[in-house]
């Protein structure tokens, strides 16, 4: 058959020492090697911001570390493009930080922003808040909603958000069941109902949660779900 397009990975914790992702610069390089070997042509360095998983709390410092990391990579022969981003945890202070740091938190300095919800709840007023972000000119990409227990019980919540132009990113690992059966079932449910725009690795390490996306093509094909090239490459 025809070649699948090279994956573009919009969500990866490859900046060392800022969160629960890469522990060292050596591990970052190893993760980038894995991504390159998997055929990934571009990957976003998206450290957590405002998260309990942050070992580094100061937002300005996280941005500095990300930039220094990207600068340092220029000295190495890496066969894929690495660009700046962040995974912004949903907090009441998001708006003020977007005013201050917006482009530095967005993917590749654009308008798209990875936004993380809590895992065990959906805050009341979430939709109004998402709408406010949109009116300020940002396009939120909700990351791994398939891992949220409320959305697992009621995936239709996302339908209303998507109607306001919010985008949805599912973790490749969810399709393999590494976040449990509910997350796996929810991710396929969302895919079948066309409620997913992007599949990304959300890589945290060089082993269990490595930056690999090529396996998504056969997995979706086996499930009879079309559109993998769009979700893994075209949309990103």
Explained architecture:
This protein is of the alpha/beta class. Helices cover 39% and strands 15% of the residues. The strands form two sheets. A six-stranded parallel beta sheet has the order 3-5-6-7-8-9. It has a three-stranded parallel beta sheet with strand order 1-2-4. The chain is globular, with a radius of gyration of 17 Å. The model has no long low-confidence stretch (mean pLDDT 94).
In short:
The protein is α/β, with parallel strands linked by helices and 236 residues long.
What attributes does this structure have?
236 residues, 39% helix, alpha/beta, globular, 3-stranded parallel beta sheet
